[in-house]
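Allow me, if you will, to draw on your knowledge of protein folds for a short while. A protein sequence and the structure tokens that stand for its backbone fold form the material at issue. I would ask you to consider whether the tokens describe a fold that such a sequence might reasonably adopt. Thank you for your consideration; the sequence and its tokens are set out here:
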Amino acid sequence: MEDLNVVDSINGAGTWLVRNQELLLSYAVNIVAAIAIIIIGDDRGAYCFQYR
């Protein structure tokens, strides 16, 4: 019954996503924030990398 294994795998993946939804959302927010900081930055932060 190969079809049952596929269905069980899909159901297992769905269950895992439901259980870890909050964690995945937290990761996504952190990644977006990190990218925004890198792209936008600010002059004070960039000042640390300038040579005098």
In short: The mean pLDDT is 82. Residues 24-52 form one domain. The chain is about 85% helix and 0% strand.
